[in-house]
Write a structure and sequence with these properties.
Elements lengths: L1 H19 L1 H7 L17 E5 L15 H5 L2 H7 L3 E4 L3 E2 L11 E5 L6 H13 L3 E6 L9 H6 L13 E2 L2 E5 L5 E4 L13 E4 L4 E4 L14 H15 L5 E4 L16 H5 L1 H5 L5 H11 L7 E5 L9 H4 L8 E3 L8 E2 L2 E2 L4 H14 L7 E2 L9 H5 L7 H12 L5 E5 L20 H11 L6 H11 L37 H5 L5 H14 L2 H4 L1 E4 L7 E8 L2 E8 L5 E4 L6 E7 L10 E4 L4 E6 L1
Parallel strand pairs: 1-2, 1-17, 2-5, 5-11, 11-12, 12-13, 16-17
Antiparallel strand pairs: 3-4, 6-10, 7-8, 9-10, 14-15, 18-19, 19-20, 20-24, 21-23, 22-24
Helix pairs in contact: 1-2, 14-18
The structure holds 1-O-alpha-D-glucopyranosyl-D-fructose and calcium ion (CA).
Length: 599
Amino acid sequence: MIPRLIASALVLVTFFTATTNGQTASSAQPAATVNGYEPTWWKEAVVYQIYPRSFKDSNGDGIGDIPGITSKLDYLQQLGVSVIWLSPHYDSPNADNGYDIRDYRKVMSEFGTMADFDKMLAGIKQRHMRLIVDLVVNHTSDEHRWFVESRSSKDNPYRDFYFWRDGKPGSPGPDGKPTLLPPNNDPSFFSGSAWQLDPKTNQFYLHYFAVKQPDLNWDNPKVREEVYSLMRFWLDKGVDGFRMDVIPLISKNPSFPDLTPDQLKNIGKAYANGPHMHEYLQEMNRNVMAKYDVMTVGEALGISLEQTPLIVGDSRHELNMIFNFDAVRFNRDGLKLKPFDLPTLKAIYTRHAEGLDTHSWDTVFLANHDNPRLVSTFGDDTPQFRMRSAKLLQTMLLTLRGTTFLYQGDELGMTNYPFKSISDFNDIEVKNAYKAKVLTGQIPEATFIADLRTTSRDNSRTPMQWDASPQGGFTTGPKTWLAVNPNYKEINAAAQISDPDSVYSYTKQAIALRHAHRAFVYGDYKDIDPANPSIFAYTRKLGPENFLVLLNFSEAENVYKIPGSLDAGALVLGNLPTSEHDTNTLHLSGWEARVYKLK
Ligand code: TEU
Ligand code: CA
């Protein structure tokens, strides 16, 4: 008798001691996982990207700014977004619209003051939202103090903040003088060589992007310390994390060998994943992120799905998640769009579900400031199907596995812009390509412009369409830095906020559905009909919760028999009125989207 009592007493004691000074014990207990995932705020977040130059102008100069964003925080809160990603807001000469930073601790004068920033951040927090800012530290502006110093002389203390190399002797120039060729054949992403000769010291410096965006030398520990210090500056202000620009490119092979013909076919891959990339990301995490409750998402140009767990694996202590480019550019061939093939797109999500386990979190996005508009590229922006297909795409983005990233204006179904001539464009990538490809006669101008109407980044950078007043209510001024899409009278926020059938209202519903059901966050994902050429059908299952998402990616009616004797139960979301439920056969109209509870 006694022994059992003692035994149970013993258990009690251990339990008790465990709980009493439980703080440590229980805090030591990892939070209960959900379907194997450690629940965190940034996994459950719906992120809304703001491109500040195009969001809202508050002072009539035709350029969006921070007080303009602050004036629209209620709009974002009512939409239901939980995190705002702000594209660069720092002091910049805008060679690449802010992705060329001159001073990391100063707000761009066109966007406002630090006080404006602090007021915006406070407004975001008051509305229980969070803010992540853009960290652009693969390169700086050539007007940044560090580079101005660096280029001034070979023995300047900042010389080694960047990559300087001697050129190769080239054939004599027209004046008979020897010319210098770049150190190697590295191309820039924005056309031409990635090397620029600087007459002051007669050496070349590296710039993977524009000439005014020299790459930082992360092998120099002073550079890394400067970066960690500026990150702390913003986190200490209360910022909740970073979107990190082309972060896989930060470690270079300092001997800069020529690229092979194969590597020249995909320079993103050639420049990414250098010898110290993981070491530097781990050092950054130890020195900065580990000390704050923050979210980090890396823009992972050149990183494959297979390499992704090495960056986002929670035991790697590098980044929380990355943007892979496989889906957003699945139908892209350089400046041209390839025919849309749904099974190819669907296969990407199945590969992600199989390639990223519960310790490697994913992102879900199909649009941002570097790609054309969502509905025009993945949907159908003709008048008959624009709203329906825009809603279908929001359904997809908000029911797939990973943190959802929405881009400003897609909640309204904004479309690509009818560019007519090169003068309509602002983007340096376009202007450089025009010089490199059209003025050299490689591509006829008409073809070039026609291609860019479907692929240019400027399609997503036209000003936000707030109402039907002049300039779409983006500004009270007479002009804008980039033209407003002429369809703003039909497509604008004011017309949609109070319209229950609008793309805005539907997006709000879909966001609410995601927030209400963790199955859409942590649930298992399964494509139940991968080969179907027009229907994207997948389930999200978490414990008792089991949802079926059906998306008709064609304008044709589809009488759809759900594979695998699954029965659709109650309808929880749909972009068209329907009375169909508790059945195995559904009549899906063109671009119809439905989310059912599975029986
Ligand atoms: O983008 C990197 C990137 O992937 C794109 O530049 C892409 O290579 C290009 O559009 C080719 O089509 C990041 C920023 O998001 C982008 O806005 C900047 O221009 C770039 O880095 C340089 O900072
Ligand atoms: Ca302004």
